[in-house]
Amino acid sequence: MLSEHKDRGRWNTKLGFVLAAAGSAVGLGNIWGFPTQVADNGGASFILIYIICCLAVGLPVMIAEFAIGRHTRRNPVGAFKKLGNGWFPPLIGIWGVICGVMILTFYMVIAGWTFSYIFEELFYFTGLTALSEWFGDLQNGVKNAIFTILFMTGTVAIINGGVSNGIERATKTMMPILILVLIIMIGYVMTLEGSSEGLKMYLLPDFSLVDTGLVFSALGQAFFSLSLGMGALLTYGSYLKRNQNIVESATYVTVADMSIAFLAGLLIIPAMFVAQSAGITIMGEDGRLFSSATLVFDVLPDMFKAMGGMFGLIFGMAFFILLSMAALTSTISLLEVPVSYIIDEHKIARKKASLIVGSIVVTVSLVISFNIDLIDVFATIFNNVGLPLGGLMLSIFLAYFWKTENAVAELRHGYSDVDNGKFPLIWGVFIKYICPVLIALVLITTLYNLIF
Ligand code: PFF
């Protein structure tokens, strides 16, 4: 057996692992992506379909990633190599590492925007309008480059601390703050004029809008939001101790991720209607709510400005601090995938590995930050195609190469009564049939729509 590099770490506590994995899952995908998708897809019916996708496809795949990671104690490439022969197994891992690096390149730029907006708000409310405009300009390549580098530096610093002292400690501190800030902001927005209209749109379903396209968007969103398909959670699983109940932990992570997405919607959709009451335009000429960057970087800041005074300042800054923290707990998991690959497979120390990958990623990010149209192209390829493709290969590999019996044997550690309640049977049906078929359908539809 290959020796383990000393820089391969272990989680200190069970809760620490759950929070770190939840931190990976909870990110821009929840606080920005989910409300945007709800707004795009007509409200509450999307939420229901999304929950079903998370539980029926996301959760079984997450259990699979944790099981493979813990069983092999390796990065994605090493893990699949250890479990199977031939070209196919390592390819799944290599694809994961590539997706990790590529997603990180544009995720960093967007994370940099959220960070620079903390200053945009601060300077606006302190009367320094020119400075505020500079920090708020998404097209300013120089400013984007500075903030992308700053965000990457923070991410590398945490990764350099190692698994328990770096990642676990940082996420354990940030996740409770994030939840608290979110809840306080929701409470306040609910007291403002217009919020009840937003609440209605968010919570009352309109099933006439449900079609296969909506189901596939929900599944794609679930995959991205749960950090599945590129081995990030496999890598986190590889630092697990044998006595942790993987099925239980995966359930906590999935529920935490869904709940925070739901809470983010509860903040952002009503906030849009509060903005409308303050005279801010929230819909395009087609009658649809603004989504995407317009929503986060135009509509909401305008709302904070309309609030004015101390509340505007506090809420404006708190919102972008919230987004930055959510992004940071995700960027560390994205970076950990290539870093763990280099540590395990090339026996290079953690600090050197993170510096190498960090520099490569930042170089590509800088190109994108000067030409932000590329973000859309990268996001489409790696989020919408890359992750489902990775997830499809992973579930096929587990079900038909490694075999579910072996995975269940791994799950028995920390969950001794895994066989009671028919868990192996049910999970087996999901991972062998339901997940691959649904993921393949999403992938085919996405590719078809992209090509034609
Ligand atoms: N789950 C993160 C989000 O919702 O923003 C994004 C992400 C992180 C995707 C890590 C994939 C990943 F491996």
TrEMBL record:
It comes from the Bacteria. It is a multi-pass membrane protein. Pfam families: SNF. Keywords: Membrane, Transmembrane, Transmembrane helix, Transport. GO terms for cellular component: membrane. CDD domains: SLC6sbd_Tyt1-Like. It is found in: Membrane. The keyword RNA-binding does not apply. Signal peptide: none annotated. This is Sodium-dependent transporter.
